[in-house]
TrEMBL record:
PROSITE patterns: GNAT (PS51186). Pfam families: Acetyltransf_9 (PF13527). One of its GO terms (molecular function) is acyltransferase activity, transferring groups other than amino-acyl groups. It comes from Paenibacillus albidus. Keywords: Acyltransferase, Transferase. This is GNAT family acetyltransferase.
Amino acid sequence: MMIHSYNFKNRDEYRASFNRLSKLVFGIDFEAWYQKGAWDDRYICHSIVTDDQIIANVSVSKMDLVINGESKRALQIGTVMTHPEHRGKGLSKQLMEYVLETYEDTCDMFFLFANSTVLDFYPKFGFTTLPEHQFYLNISVQPKDELILLDKLDVSKEEHWDSIKQMLFSRRPISKHFGVTNNEGLFQFYALNVFHECLYYSRTDDAIIIFEHEGDLLHLYDVISDKQVNIETLVSRITTKQTRKVRFHFTPDQLIDKAYVEPFGKHEDVLFIRPLSNLGKLPAFCIPKLAHA
């Protein structure tokens, strides 16, 4: 067994093995992301290989967090997985230790998101939980019958994909309280695999909006623009007559005084950070949903 500490994305046999394992463990496939050129050098796999098959993996995503207006170099850990036949051998522990040692001098902090089944695992490596919050806005005024200049985006169309990439690389962070920059590859993964039916271009705002309706609840996931978009006005245009409240899947800086805040529910992934010492006092926040590795 050996750890491949380089990014093997361009080696077809290893990438295929990685995809087989990720489909088995998480039900996700990275191949379309690779073929679109969105698997960039900021997403690096560290894997244990035996008999030319990847049997365990811990990936890192390099990005910057904007916290209280200050930019911090961050490294997000994700795609932590072991083949079912090789669990219980300490392979994830070995990879975690390797990754933390390899990158600890290159960033200000590590962070990750964990589900309820592995909450006891990460504190062993010096990670501490940091509670996130949900932001909601009640909709009391019914939307006006005005023309909404929204174009549905289709990631399979080259001109739409190129436009998405162009806007991504010049975007402003969605929040200065707790935002993310340099995470274009992750956004493109979500655009291809998760939110491809929720992508719109607003000609009115010159912004890409990612949103969907769930009954009387509007989920607003992200707003991509190189300008500051008036979020409250934007929301008023994309609500329907059925909409009663909006959930922001990021920290809505402009609406902090109007939104109401609730702790994350038990079904939500838990944020772990190492170290906490350089964060200072934090108000309620939500890391953008489309920045989760």
